[in-house]
Amino acid sequence: MKMREINAKQITDAVSDLCMKANFDIPDDVIQVIKKAYQDEPSPQGKDVLKQIIDNDEIAHNEQVPMCQDTGLAVFFVELGQDAHITGGLLNDAINDGVRKGYKDGYLRKSTCNPFTRKNVGDNTPSIIHVEVVPGDKVKIIMAAKGGGSENMSRVMMMKPSDGLEGIKKYIIDRVRESGSNPCPPIIVGVGIGGTFERSALIAKKSLLRPLGTPNPDPELDKLEKELLTSINKLGIGPMGLGGRTTALAVHVIVEPCHIASLPLAVNIQCHSARHKEITI
Amino acid sequence: MTDILKIKTPLTDEVVSKLKSGDSVLITGVMYTGRDAAHKRMIDALNKGEKLPFDIQGQIIYYVGPSPAKPGKPIGSAGPTTSYRMDAYAPTLIKLGLKGMIGKGWRAKDVIDACIKYKAIYFGATGGAGALIARAIKKADIIAYDDLGPEAVRRIEVVDFPAIVINDAFGNDLYVKGVEQYKQTV
Ligand code: SF4
Fold first, then answer.
1. Cβ pair B178:A242 closer than 8 A
2. Is residue A14 within 8 Å of A98, Cβ to Cβ?
3. Which chain B residue shows the shortest CA-CA distance from A54?
4. What is the A89 CA–ligand 1 centroid distance (Å)?
5. ipTM confidence
6. Which of A125, A200, A230, B56 has the greatest CB tally within 10 Å of its CB?
7. Percent residues over pLDDT 70 in chain A
8. Edge-to-edge strand list for the sheet holding A275-280
9. Contact: B178, A108; criterion CB under 8 Å
10. Is the pLDDT of residue A1 over 80?
11. Please, what are the domains in chain B?
12. For the segment B112-155, what is each residue's pLDDT rounded down to a tens digit?
C-alpha cells in the first residue's frame, strides 16, 4: 500500500492555529455544563464566580484573547496513521515550530522554564507530545493547554492492591478536598487506574479529553464516575473555593489492567478553563 | 449578588479594619504585580540590604503573570495565580508594610498570622477569568526584573478591580467559613 504524504509545514500551521483557538474558545461542552451549574448553584458567591467565568469566556471568544493568562504547557495527543508519511521534517519539530508560532502570534504566555534556574525558555517549547500509531493514513492532533495551578494539585499514587475500590475512592475525594481553591474549581477530575506508574498518569490526562456530559462507555465505570461526582460536590468547596455545591463539573475514569503486585492510581485535576482543540489532516 | 464595597489604594489601617472575610470589593488605584521569581528576588534584595523596587507602604501585590498585551492594549489576560507559592515570602513583606495581596487558594498559617498582627488583607480573585479582569487594568508598566518576562514586576493602575476578602485582619477565613456552610456529609 502506498503511503500518504503529509508535509511537516502543514502540521506546523495546523498546530499554531490549534494553540490559539484552544486558548481563545472554550469548548462548547464545557461552557454548557458551567451554564447549567450557574443555574443550580445555591451559594450567591459561588454564583458570582460562575457568572464571571461565563462572561470571561465570552470576552475571550469575542476578542480572541486567552481566557486565562496561564496559557499552559502545550500538550499533544497525536494519533498517527501507520500509512501516513511525514515529509519535509520531523513530526516533533513540526509540532514545536507550531507552538512557537502560535504562542507568539496569539500573544499567549510562554510558561516553560528551567526547573532549577527558573529561567524562561522564551517560546513555550518543548511541548509535551504523546504519539500513538493507529490504522489509516491520516494524522489526528489534539492540543490541550494545561495550566500549572491545576496540574500542581494532581498526583500519582501507587496504592496497595488491598486498598481496593474503597481506598481508591477515598484517595480521589481526599485529593480534591486538599486541593481546595487552588486548582480553580469547578474542576474536572481525570482518573487513571491501572497500567504502570507513568501509564496511569497518561490515561488520567487522556480521560479529560472525553466531552463533558457524555457517559463512560462502561456502565460500571459510569456509575462510579457519578458516585464520585456526587461525593465531591458534597465537600462544599464550590466555585473558587468560596463555598458552594459546584466543586467539580465531572469525573472521568479510565481503567486498564496492571501488574499483580500493583494498583497505580493517578488523579489529574483540570480547572474549569478546560482547553483543548483537535484537527485531523 | 452580595453588597460591594469600593476601596482605594494605598490601603490604610482604617480601611483594612473595616474589611471582613466574605466582603466583595472593587479596588481602584495603583497596585504592583509579582509572583514566584519576583518574590524570590525581592527577598534576596532585602537580605543583601538592598531596597525593594517600589515603596511597599500600604500597597497591594497582585499575584499574576499576565499574557502579552495585544497591540493597543495595556495588558493581556491577567487573572490570579495560586498564592501558596508566595507564602514563604509574604510575611516579610507584610511586616514591611504590605497591606494587601490578591491571588487564589489558601494561605499558610504564617501569612494569616501576619495579616492579623500587622493588619493586612488577603483577597481572592477569580482564577481563569483573566480576560474579564484585564478590563479593570487601565495601565501597566514594568518597573523591575524585566528579564523575568511574564514574572516581571509591573506597576498597574486599576479601576473597579473585582475581588473578595478571603482572610481579614481578624483571623477569619472565607475558605473555611464558606466550605463549612455548604458541606454535606460524605
Ligand atoms: S488553574 Fe486553570 S483557570 Fe486557574 S489560573 Fe491555572 S490555567 Fe487558569
1. yes
2. yes
3. B129
4. 34
5. 0.94
6. A200
7. 100
8. A128-134, A73-81, A139-146, A275-280
9. no
10. no
11. 4-16+24-182 (3.20.130.10)
12. 999 999 999 999 999 999 999 999 999 999 999 999 888 999 99
Position A281, amino acid: I
Lining residues, ligand 1, CB within 6 Å:
A 68, 70, 147-150, 183-184, 271, 273; B 79, 127-128
Q: Supply the residue whose CA is at minimum distance from atom 2 of ligand 1.
A: A271
Placement of cell 495595556 in the chain: B74
Task: Report the pLDDT value the prediction gives residue A2, as an integer from 0 to 100.
Answer: 80
Cell of A107: 500573544
Please tell me the pTM assigned to this model.
Answer: 0.95
Question: Which residue, by CA, sits nearest to atom 8 of ligand 1?
Answer: B128
Given this model, what pLDDT does residue B1 score? 46
> Are residues B169 and B17 in contact, defined by beta-carbon separation less than 8 angstroms?
yes
- How many whole angstroms separate alpha carbon B144 and alpha carbon A260? 56
- Dist CA A161 CA A56 (whole Å): 44
Q: Which of A68, A148, A234 sits opposite B128 (nearest CB)?
A: A68
Residue B2 has pLDDT above 60, yes or no: no
Instruction: Assess A55–B contact: CB distance below 8 Å, yes or no.
Output: yes
Among A58, A70, A114, A174, most B C-beta atoms within 10 A, so best to mutate, is A70
**Residues A250/B172, Cβ–Cβ less than 8 Å:** no
